[in-house]
C-alpha cells in the first residue's frame, strides 16, 4: 500500500466512514505544499474547505434552531459561533488525531505547520465536504452532530451570554441549605478516543443524586445537574 492509499485508509479508520471516491479522502488532507512537491494529480484541501465551512454552518444552524425555539436570533448566532469557531473545530479534530493525518511538504513540516490551529480547523472542514460529496446530507449531518454536545447552550453558556446554567441553578438551590453540599464525580468513560462518552454524577452530601452523559466531562456534569433539577421539578 502506497503512502497516499495508507493516508486515505487511516482517515477512514479515524472517522468511521469508508469513501467510495478515495481521491476525495486524499484531497481533504493535502496541504498545498504537499501537492506542489508530490508527483500526484490532485488538488489541495482548500476548495473542499470552502464547501465544508458552508455545510457545517447549515447543519449546526438547523440543529440549534430546532433544538432551542426560545433562543433569540442573537443568542443562536453566538451559540453557532461557539460551536464552529477555530478552537472548537480543533478540539473536535483532536478526537480523530487529525493533525497527524495532514500531508505537508517538507518546508511546511520544518515550519511546524502541523500544529497550526488554523490549518487543522480548515482540514476538519475539508473532511466534512469530502464526506458530504461522497454521500449525502443525512450522512454528513450524523457525522457533524457526533461531535456536538447534547446541550450546547449549557456547555457554552458564557459564550452565548445566557444568564445561568444547570450547575449554577442547582448550586443556588443547594446553597439555601447550609448543611448540604454538592460535588461532581466522573463515573465512567466509554467508547473509542474519537467518540468518547463520559458519565458524571452529582453527589449530594456524598450520595449520588443524579447522573448525566456527554461527549466531554463538562457536558456530562451539566447533564447530571439538569437531571437533578428535573428530580426537583425544576426545568
Question: Can you describe this structure?
Answer:
With 235 residues, this protein is mainly alpha-helical. It has 2 domains: 3-159, Ribonuclease iii, N-terminal Endonuclease Domain, Chain A (Orthogonal Bundle); 164-231, Double Stranded RNA Binding Domain. Helix content is 57%, strand content 11%. It has helices spanning 3-15, 22-27, 32-37, 46-67, 73-84, 86-95, 106-110, 117-134, 137-145, 152-155, 157-160, 166-174, 217-231, and strands spanning 182-190, 197-204, 207-214. Strands 1-2-3 form a 3-stranded antiparallel sheet. Strand 1 and strand 2 form a beta hairpin. The longest helix is centred in the N-terminal third of the chain and has 22 residues, at 46-67. It is elongated and about 70 Å long. The chain starts with a helix and ends with a helix.
The value of Rg in angstroms is 21 Å
The residue-averaged pLDDT reads 88
* The named CATH superfamily of the largest domain: Ribonuclease III domain
CATH architecture of the largest domain: Orthogonal Bundle
Number of domains: 2
End-to-end separation in angstroms reads 55 Å
What is CATH's topology name of the largest domain?
A: Ribonuclease iii, N-terminal Endonuclease Domain, Chain A
Number of helices: 13
Largest sheet: 3 strands, antiparallel
Q: Look at the helices and sheets and give the structural class.
A: mainly alpha
Number of strands: 3
Beta fraction: 5-15%
Amino acid at each position: 500500500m502506497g503512502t497516499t492509499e495508507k493516508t486515505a485508509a487511516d482517515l477512514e479508520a479515524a472517522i468511521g466512514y469508508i469513501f467510495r471516491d478515495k481521491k476525495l479522502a486524499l484531497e481533504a488532507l493535502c496541504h498545498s505544499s504537499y501537492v506542489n512537491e508530490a508527483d500526484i494529480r490532485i488538488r489541495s484541501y482548500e476548495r473542499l474547505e470552502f464547501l465544508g465551512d458552508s455545510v457545517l454552518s447549515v447543519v449546526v444552524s438547523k440543529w440549534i434552531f430546532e433544538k432551542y425555539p426560545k433562543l433569540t436570533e442573537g443568542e443562536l448566532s453566538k451559540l453557532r459561533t461557539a460551536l464552529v469557531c477555530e478552537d472548537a473545530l480543533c478540539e473536535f479534530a483532536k478526537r480523530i488525531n487529525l493533525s497527524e493525518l495532514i500531508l505537508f511538504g517538507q518546508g511546511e513540516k520544518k515550519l511546524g505547520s502541523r500544529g497550526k490551529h488554523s490549518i487543522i480547523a480548515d482540514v476538519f472542514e475539508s473532511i466534512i465536504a469530502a464526506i458530504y460529496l461522497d454521500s449525502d446530507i443525512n450522512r454528513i449531518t450524523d457525522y457533524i452532530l457526533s461531535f456536538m454536545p447534547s446541550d450546547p447552550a449549557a456547555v457554552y453558556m458564557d459564550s452565548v451570554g445566557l444568564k445561568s446554567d444547570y450547575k449554577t441553578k442547582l448550586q443556588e438551590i443547594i446553597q439555601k441549605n447550609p448543611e448540604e453540599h454538592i460535588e461532581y464525580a466522573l463515573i465512567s468513560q466509554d467508547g473509542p478516543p474519537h467518540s468518547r462518552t463520559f458519565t458524571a454524577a452529582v453527589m449530594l452530601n456524598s450520595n449520588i443524586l443524579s447522573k448525566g452523559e456527554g461527549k466531554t466531562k463538562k457536558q456530562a456534569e451539566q447533564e447530571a445537574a439538569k437531571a437533578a433539577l428535573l428530580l426537583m421539578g425544576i426545568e
